[in-house]
Design goal:
This is Antifreeze protein. The protein has 122 residues and is mostly helical. It has a single domain, classed as Four Helix Bundle (Hemerythrin (Met), subunit A) (Up-down Bundle). Helices cover 77% and strands 0% of the residues. 35% of the residues are buried.
Length: 122
């Protein structure tokens, strides 16, 4: 009886794999943040860096919302952390601060993507 129960539990879809949770949209938003994160880390001017930071913050906030809805707590937390770092840079006064901050935000976003790739939602 117990082996049958274990097989049934293993066959049940995880919450993140059920239709309507938006896991794919969360992953897409994380990927969509890559270009502005890279652009901000390599920004040629303060204005370009601020703009890239804003775009990245918006995409990462979106990713965190989708991942939260799918109960991907750790990946959502890392996406939220990256969004917060990027958000702080919207009004930065120094280009070098934007570059360093965007590198840190890229690291957090990469951790979220890698976690999803390796372990799925957790």
């Amino acid at each position: 009886m117990i082996p049958l129960l274990i097989l049934l539990l293993a066959a049940m879809p995880a919450a993140a794999q059920r239709g309507g949770c938006g896991l794919g949209l969360g992953i897409e938003a994380l990927r969509g943040a890559e270009a502005p994160l890279r652009a901000g880390a390599e920004a040629p001017s303060l204005l370009a860096g601020r703009e890239a930071a804003g775009q990245a913050a918006d995409r990462l906030t979106e990713a965190a919302a989708w991942l939260t809805g799918c109960r991907c707590a750790q990946a959502a937390g890392q996406a939220r952390e990256a969004a917060g770092l990027a958000e702080e840079l919207r009004g930065a006064a120094e280009l070098e601060r934007i570059r360093r901050g965007m590198d840190r935000a890229r690291f957090s976003a990469r951790l979220a993507r890698e976690r999803l790739d390796r372990q799925g939602c957790s």
